């Protein structure tokens, strides 16, 4: 790789959540002309002020109308009131099968003195126009829905009549005028508004429209939203992933969120950071669409490139660049020649959050949709949540129903995580003036879905792939498990606090060499799970390790000062194994302490390190060499008082099923039952 | 029309809600062979038993899978667990813009003793694979999202560094190992289940799938549902309506409800009651689809025709024919050669109700969807609701928020109404063993939509088209008016009970000749609305009436014994006008007493009657002759205590707006302000 002077360094723009790229521009590109650096300067606005400026510049209203067939109108938004052109029913009709009669003829009818009516020579089936009037002393057979003939003022049910010869009936009771007859217009009156402007068409609206003969309606046109992701490192899902590449998730997720909010997404793909190509794509999107949503993931120089290209699109241009929001600070909001143009932060949770909070309301107005009404619930925050002063902060939370009400757990993952947004039930808002939320605070949680669904089983602790077949098995029986990966120690703490049913743990007690059991608190019992073989992991073919025992391999590693290890976090069972192998040595890489087997394997596979200790299946996933050391025990701390819960019982049963044992073996684990 | 002997009469099947057509078959077709009549016999089953038989015969499970692109997967149902193929992030990456460093180098850094690090000759932008290791005393510039190079165990934010010459930085604080670095797999671990079978794909699911490079997923195929309406009287929306025809609303509404429940509707249109055509259509639908939904509207003979044709389709065949449900008794449920075949009652509300109650759950299973979770609320039923013993009855209700909680008003319209289902907020269930619900009963209301939206203005009373522009005007300002057409007297009663804000009324006091004001109760005030000209209405060109005064026209009518009138209901202001004109005479048709101007005009236009009294705009709508008599006053009884409500204030303001007055004049009404 060519050397570049430091002054040329331009880093990714808009990706992180701490203002990332943009301060970088201020600080790093020291050889840029002062003006260019200045142009990039973030005037961070409070959230409400940024939103106010954007909405004032935009003045969003529906982008236009189109006519659609009723059969294709489901989910569309009605653009103008639709009046009924006809009465429904269009004529006085029979409500039952029977006979159209004159009620006066039957005024004195009784069982003792039945009245005989002569049948008229026509039968009014549905669709038949009556030709014969019902004269006194006569009746006309009529079907439900048939038009009532002249002269008749009621319909008598067939069940309440008796045949009387080939052309007559006998009636033994009187009937009121208007009985079993529905008058024209009694359901819908011509001129009445059937469906009002702004209504979202559902099957119920389709019913009344069809009944009035409406075959086509005017709806708001869906705003076309051009979606671009920018960045050399982005790869479209389905394509092979290069060594420093990541998949573009913002493009697909923004497209889906646009569709969910009434827009028609138009994807312009992931555009590399080439000024001409990027300018071309942005201009084309601006010309073809009603709105543009770009998202970061920009690399060298593209940060202020995109910014400048947006500024070129027309007045009034950028109205907010930098918003005191977390996640989401690097958000850019612009209105160019009447069309909204937005650059979302590159980090997935930041991007989704700012889209929903700041952009979706305007999109919905362009689509003629009402604001989304978010459901809210009250919940207790069980732990202190630190927050940054001066920024409105949104904290993604998972909800759990405890004995004394709902608890909202902050998802530990940051804005760079795609799962933080996806797995959260909702979020809490920490105002800009607060520096933390105290443990035990009652807070309002805005939900992502209308209802909170209480899980049948709560698992908090270490995550292992062996849990997947069990959870899938439970799902087949309709048991919803909520799994929160908080590590073994986190799981034990949650179990002590009564927050979970089961805590998966794999902790080695160095004093006794016993796994897990020594860590149980009173009120917990151990349920044995499975064993995972840990081993010395290295890149295949490395002559320092190939064919050695674990001890030999470590000795070989320690002998080479250029050999880097990757360690594990303190408290991990594997860390105890590693420290045992090292016997006090602290080689290069000892301070690199990821929290998972996968991170260890990834570091070795990518050359960040040369060896580490991880479990066999993960080494295999990464195609690494593996020298077995010892099994670790992946077990479950069960809160005894929860044993009776349906979800717990099902979990314990599933754990013993032959299919589960087979799945575990297939994953490379050894069920404890077989040890 | 040819005379048909009574024995040949065969009426509409499956249309009404009292068992309609089907008892008709037992009673009427006396010359059918006993077997044919027997075959048609309804064995009415309790709802739960009918449902149990249907579901047991069907054993519904998803109809199959297909692969769809992620971009087209929104709203689809995932058919199998989707595991992550990669770790996310795929490598250890920087969380901020800054420098990849060795934390040990900075252990003693402070403002007094800053540490100088030499910059390595590469910059890790996004997408760049590091080539140079971070050796002690060095740092590598790195962008947010960039892969952390070998040797580094932390990233330091650019803001916390100072430039130190062209190729160095100075750091004044220590940094922890792992700072601002996210480890491979920390967001998603390879092998972890990303989305579980049965999940409905939303934008959040698309995010995690895209992040793992998933471009295509396996979803349940949408079951194809063949939809046929049968009946000679049915006309497709958009086509001209014949004199005894009605528009097919069941076809479009079932299609929409199928789509809302995960199916793919396949419309076979409205099929006339021709045995060969009907057999052909049903067999084709059975061959091409996974399910068939027929709906009545059948005419002469088609009732048992459809029944026999369904029975021909294969075993086990019909499992329930007649269900003790109201609405919905004539429902037919069958399973033919593994596919569900259903004949819904013909009446729109019966059809929709039975579809949702009895059919949709199976359709959702075929589509792999979970049962729909209906929201429920508690409400008070303000009036006694009679019910039929022996049938589970569902009563459509509108909800209103009163001071002491929600009230559920039964919609007066029957199962023949298309609006009863469309306008209801939900329904209450009256068990088969109850013969009524007492006034004041607290009952559970199952909602049609997840939330009850409280109206800003409640209008109960007489309906007039003049209200439409006012309600539309309010809607523009976001004010939701709820209009319940209960007639003038009904509106006054509701106002007395505190159930509405405003009651539109048009009641003439015969004693004083004064409209409306004499009917106000204490606590109400009159708000004047508009005047509607009433007149003598007849078919244009009728020599008995053309060119006469109202009194002359009535005299002419009374002189002709073949001349039929159409009256109005007792209590209507117009009825008082009519009785005044008749002066005690009771001509033919006097007992025909519809409740609306439109029904009067429709009866005359269709020859059911020759004259009546109605308002001018309605006569014009039906192209009838009109001889003006006197204006009636359409005013509003306002509950004085409600004057301060936002909706009431807006209503009163809208009533006086020039645009409203113009709309009223255009409709043929004269605003009171102009009198």
UniProtKB/TrEMBL annotation, chains A, B:
Gene3D superfamilies: MoaB/Mog-like domain, MoeA, C-terminal, domain IV, Molybdopterin biosynthesis moea protein, domain 2, Molybdopterin biosynthesis moea protein, domain 3. Residues 1-19 have a biased composition (Basic and acidic residues). Transmembrane segments: none annotated. This is Molybdopterin molybdenumtransferase. The keyword Magnesium applies. It comes from Enterovirga aerilata. Its cofactor is Mg(2+). SMART domains: MoCF_biosynth. It holds the Pfam family PBP_like. Catalyzes the insertion of molybdate into adenylated molybdopterin with the concomitant release of AMP.
């Amino acid at each position: 790789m060519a050397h570049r002077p430091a002054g040329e360094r331009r880093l990714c723009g808009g990706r992180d959540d701490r203002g990332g790229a943009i301060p970088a521009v201020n600080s790093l590109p020291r050889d840029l002309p002062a003006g260019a650096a200045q142009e990039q300067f973030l005037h961070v606005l409070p959230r409400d002020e940024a939103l106010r400026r954007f909405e004032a510049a935009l003045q969003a209203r529906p982008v236009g109308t189109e006519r659609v067939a009723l059969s294709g109108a489901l989910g569309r938004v009605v653009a103008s009131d639709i009046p009924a052109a006809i009465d429904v029913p269009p004529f006085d009709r029979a409500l039952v099968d029977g006979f159209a009669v004159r009620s006066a003829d039957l005024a004195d009818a009784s069982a003792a003195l039945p009245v005989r009516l002569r049948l008229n020579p026509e039968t009014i089936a549905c669709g038949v126009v009556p030709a014969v009037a019902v004269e006194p002393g006569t009746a006309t057979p009529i079907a439900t829905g048939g038009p009532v003939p002249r002269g008749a003022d009621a319909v008598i049910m067939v069940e309440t009549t008796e045949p009387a010869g080939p052309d007559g009936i006998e009636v033994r009771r009187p009937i009121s005028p208007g009985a079993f007859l529905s008058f024209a217009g009694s359901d819908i009156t011509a001129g009445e508004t059937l469906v009002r402007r702004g209504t979202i068409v559902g099957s119920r609206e389709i019913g009344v429209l069809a009944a009035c003969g409406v075959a086509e309606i005017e709806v708001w046109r869906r705003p076309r939203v051009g979606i671009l992701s920018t960045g050399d490192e982005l790869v479209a899902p389905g394509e092979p992933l290069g060594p420093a590449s990541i998949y573009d998730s913002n493009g697909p997720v923004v497209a889906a969120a646009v569709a969910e909010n009434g827009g028609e997404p138009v994807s312009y793909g992931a555009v590399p950071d080439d000024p001409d190509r990027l300018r071309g794509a942005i201009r084309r999107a601006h010309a073809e669409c009603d709105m543009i949503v770009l998202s970061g993931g920009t690399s060298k120089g593209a940060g202020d490139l995109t910014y400048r290209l947006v500024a070129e699109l027309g007045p009034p241009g950028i109205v907010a660049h930098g918003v005191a929001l977390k996640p989401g600070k690097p958000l850019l909001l612009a209105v160019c020649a009447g069309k909204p143009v937005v650059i979302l932060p590159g980090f997935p949770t930041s991007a989704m959050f700012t889209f929903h909070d700041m952009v979706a309301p305007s999109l919905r107005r362009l689509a003629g949709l009402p604001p989304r009404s978010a459901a809210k619930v009250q919940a207790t925050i069980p732990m202190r949540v630190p927050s940054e002063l001066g920024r409105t902060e949104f904290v993604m939370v998972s909800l759990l129903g405890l004995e004394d009400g709902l608890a909202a757990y902050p998802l530990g993952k940051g804005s760079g995580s795609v799962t933080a947004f996806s797995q959260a039930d909702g979020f809490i808002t920490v105002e800009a003036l607060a520096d933390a939320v105290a443990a035990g605070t009652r807070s309002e949680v805005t939900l992502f879905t209308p209802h909170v669904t209480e899980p049948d089983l709560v698992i908090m602790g270490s995550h292992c792939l062996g849990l997947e077949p069990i959870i899938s098995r439970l799902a087949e029986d309709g048991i919803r498990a909520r799994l929160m990966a908080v590590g073994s120690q986190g799981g034990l703490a949650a179990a002590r606090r009564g927050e979970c049913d089961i805590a998966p743990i794999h902790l080695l007690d160095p004093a006794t060499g016993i796994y897990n059991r020594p860590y149980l608190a009173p009120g917990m019992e151990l349920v044995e799970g499975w064993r995972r073989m840990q081993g010395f992991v290295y890149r295949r073919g490395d002559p320092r390790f190939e064919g050695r025992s674990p001890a030999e391999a470590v000795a070989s590693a320690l002998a080479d000062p250029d050999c880097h290890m990757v360690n594990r976090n303190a408290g991990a069972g594997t860390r105890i194994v590693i420290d045992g192998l090292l016997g006090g040595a602290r080689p290069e890489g000892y301070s690199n302490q990821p929290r998972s087997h996968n991170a260890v394997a990834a570091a070795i596979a990518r050359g960040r390190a040369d060896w580490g200790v991880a479990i066999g299946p993960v080494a295999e996933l990464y195609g690494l060499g593996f020298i077995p050391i010892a099994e670790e025990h992946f077990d479950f701390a069960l809160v005894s008082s929860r044993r009776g819960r349906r979800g717990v019982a099902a979990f314990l049963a599933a754990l013993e099923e032959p299919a589960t044992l087979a799945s575990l073996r297939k994953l490379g684990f050894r069920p404890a039952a077989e040890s």
